């Protein structure tokens, strides 16, 4: 685990992870950490999982995954969730979450797992009222199915391409911005 990313993402100040995310192994061991989040700081799904554990005030270890060298597509990373998701697919995305023998994957499921498993700790992540809960789940679906795919493409055009020296497609940027505005106006 490193406190300073040594890949292309680490060169852009936008993607510098807060120091509290990148705790030392010794610090984690002294707190008896069992939760681990394997991820990359620029990844929105990684940030989603980290936000959940931070809101709950949980001790965790952040394990940096170097996506620039495709570490997320190699062993041992892809076998972390092997027992749970095989034979369906191998996890090649971040984050990967470990809580003892539980290894849920997919960031939205991870946040739900954290909300339910650690309901009595820290900030409540979901409301207890059924009507309020329904609204949260409904808008979570809108976010995951409509907003996030569009925002991710826009992020790629405006940020990721710049990091890797690629040309931004200005027409795509304008189209994606317009689509996000339509989603937000609903």
UniProtKB/TrEMBL annotation:
GO terms for cellular component: cytoplasm. Pfam families: GST_N. Its EC number is 2.5.1.18. Gene3D superfamilies: 1.20.1050.10, Glutaredoxin. One of its GO terms (biological process) is glutathione metabolic process. SUPFAM superfamilies: GST C-terminal domain-like, Thioredoxin-like. GO terms for molecular function: glutathione binding; glutathione transferase activity. It comes from the Eukaryota. Keywords: Transferase. Residues 33-122 form the GST N-terminal domain. This is glutathione transferase. Signal peptide: none annotated.
